[in-house]
Design goal:
4 domains, D-isomer_DH_NAD-bd, ACT_dom, about 525 residues, Rossmann fold, ASB_dom_sf, single chain, 60s Ribosomal Protein L30, Chain: A, binds 2-oxoglutaric acid, binds 1,4-dihydronicotinamide adenine dinucleotide, about 35% helix, 6-stranded mixed beta sheet, 18 helices, elongated
Length: about 525
């Protein structure tokens, strides 16, 4: 039974599939301190958070069972990603579920700012009928959007409908896409100098921290307004207050703060030109359901060892590539396991060769599964697809990959070679055969045809008459039933191999007897778990 801890308020409807899963127990414990979380985290397999829980290195250090941290939202700045990767904890997020909601909040903030709605509301309910609040229209104003990702692009679309001219900047924004969106691709400097409104939609990174600060405020249009519904710190808070005092900025609307929650004496909380909300950008029924559904689904996949998407601590892969690779994950991992078990030496290099159909795609996710398979012999459950390459490199094991479209007789072929410092090599090749599934087709360059499952017995021997009979008789007399047998040799009378599928694991004494049979050099059981 997997135990899942939900440590922030997350939509009940959204996590319903987790609650209803018969292999999962969900417990909700919100508002815990770091020390309280440290006390209880060792018993959990998955942790679901929003932005309140800070998932620190100290927490992960004791989280011995933790396989996945699910962030019901976009930003993962509350999770120590480096610590998670080092420990093989997969971090996933839900990047799409709150886009529209957060865009609408940014828009609401911009409109509230333009028309002083919060200030007017506060006055009205306090009994003062004050009609001096004079606003501005959005129409014909220049809106600068910094960060044209999911949310920034949606804000730009809506602003266009309001008749605004949009200047957009994003390191990944091309002329072509800007044109498609009907916006003007601009530099940060052009935006800062010309915009009547600026809205930021970038993550907080070393590059975006204080990207709007004193030097930018100094050259801004007098009377401009600024919105931050992305991350506290993208706009320098103290420089903003100064710019308001100097009459450069007419007003600001912030949903996020450099430190959340802000201290009671934070200057934003006492400035009538600054309107604030307590990080509510993603807080709608719809968004909370969307992100919780998304993240719950992925957590279930991860706990059940099934393919998943949106891992933050692994390089992104296009869905089309992922769809193509997913059927190979199990095969790749088993090839890695088999190669590792055949190899008795220290591994210096793991070489993976992809041929045929696999030559054309980014195979990096598949390589992670293969390396996981190789390392699982020694690392057991401590290795997974997040940390497999990291673990190999940390032990000075070189991981090399080649891809070639030559089919080698198969439509797709994965060959894994383990190289030892003394020059010894072991290689295993496998393919996905249409209608037959995963097959191992070569072991140490001997052609074979084996399904990588169940109990396998690998025997290396000299090619002499009667070998098959000797082995069969010995196994039979020990009540070990043979389901299938493959014999491979390169030359008549030379070195050869036998690979047998047996119905149950062979007892250790049977392996000892096998090794003592004449002409047998090695007899070894192979495991695929
Ligand atoms: N207030 C709230 O409750 C919410 C806040 N957010 C935050 O909003 C931000 C944007 O979210 P999404 O649009 O979903 O992310 P996204 O990843 O789709 O877009 C972010 C964009 O910022 C761009 N960017 C990175 N560095 C930049 C730079 N130096 N200058 C200009 N652009 C730069 C990226 O290229 C990317 O296109 C994130 O920080 C996210 O955490 C998201 C949801 C809710
Ligand atoms: O969970 C929340 O409400 C915060 C949303 C957010 O900031 C994000 O998704 O990046």
């Amino acid at each position: 039974m997997f135990k899942v801890l939900v440590s922030d308020p997350i939509s009940d409807l959204g996590i319903q599939q987790l609650v209803e899963a018969n292999d999962v127990v969900v417990e909700k414990k919100t508002g815990l301190s770091e020390d309280e979380l440290i006390q209880i985290i060792p018993e959990y397999d998955a942790l679901l958070v929003r932005s309140q829980t800070k998932v620190t290195d100290r927490i992960m250090e004791v989280a011995k069972n933790l396989k996945v941290i699910g962030r019901a939202g976009v930003g993962v700045d509350n999770i120590n990603l480096e610590a998670a990767t080092k420990r093989g904890i997969i971090v996933i997020n839900a990047p799409d579920g709150n886009t529209i909601t957060t865009c609408e909040h940014a828009f609401a903030m911009m409109m509230a700012l333009a028309r002083h709605i919060p200030q007017a509301y506060a006055k009205t309910i306090s009994g003062t009928w004050d009609r001096k609040f004079l606003g501005v229209e959005l129409r014909n104003k220049k809106l600068g959007v910094l960060g044209m990702g999911r949310i920034g692009s949606e804000v730009a679309k809506r602003a266009k409908v309001f008749g605004m001219d949009i200047l957009g900047y994003d390191p990944f924004l091309t002329e072509e896409r800007a044109e498609k969106l009907g916006i003007k691709l601009s530099s940060v400097d052009e935006i800062v100098r010309n915009a009547d409104f600026i809205t930021v939609h970038t993550p907080l990174t070393p590059e975006t921290k204080h990207m709007i600060s004193r030097p930018q405020f100094e050259v801004m249009k007098k009377g401009m307004r600024i919105v931050n519904c992305a991350r506290g710190g993208v706009v320098d808070e103290l420089a903003l207050v100064e710019a308001i005092d100097q009459g450069i900025v007419a007003g600001a609307a912030f949903d996020v703060f450099e430190k959340e929650p802000p201290e009671a004496d934070h200057p934003f909380l006492h400035n009538p030109k600054i309107i604030v909300t307590p990080h509510l950008g993603a807080s709608t029924v719809e968004a909370q359901e969307n992100v919780a559904i998304d993240v719950s689904e992925q957590v279930l996949h991860i706990l059940r060892n099934e393919p998943f998407k949106n891992a933050v601590n692994m390089p992104p892969v296009a869905p089309s590539v992922m769809n193509k690779l997913t059927p190979y994950f199990g095969l790749g991992e088993k090839i890695g396991m088999l190669a590792a078990q055949l190899n008795q030496e220290a591994v210096q290099e793991i070489h993976v060769d992809y041929a045929g159909d696999l030559a054309e795609v980014d195979t990096q996710p598949l390589t992670r599964y293969i390396i996981k398979g190789v390392l699982s012999r020694h690392f057991g459950d401590d290795v997974n697809i997040v940390n497999s390459i990291h673990l190999a490199k940390a032990r000075d094991v070189k991981v090399s990959v080649t891809q070639a479209s030559a089919t080698k007789g198969f439509t797709n072929l994965i060959t894994v070679t383990l190289k030892a410092p003394n020059g010894t090599e072991h290689s295993v090749a496998g393919t996905l055969l249409n209608g037959y599934g995963a097959r191992i087709v070569q072991i140490d360059k001997y052609p074979v045809d084996i399904a990588p499952e169940g109990h396998l017995l690998f025997i290396s021997h000299n090619d002499k008459p009667g070998m098959v009979g000797h082995v069969g008789t010995l196994l039979g007399s020990n009540d070990v039933n043979i389901a299938s047998m493959q014999v491979g040799r390169k030359i008549v009378g030379g070195a050869a191999i036998m690979v047998l599928t047996i119905d149950k694991a062979a007892p250790a004494e049977v392996l000892d007897h096998l090794i003592n049979l004449p002409e047998i050099n090695k007899a070894q059981q192979i495991f695929f778990v």
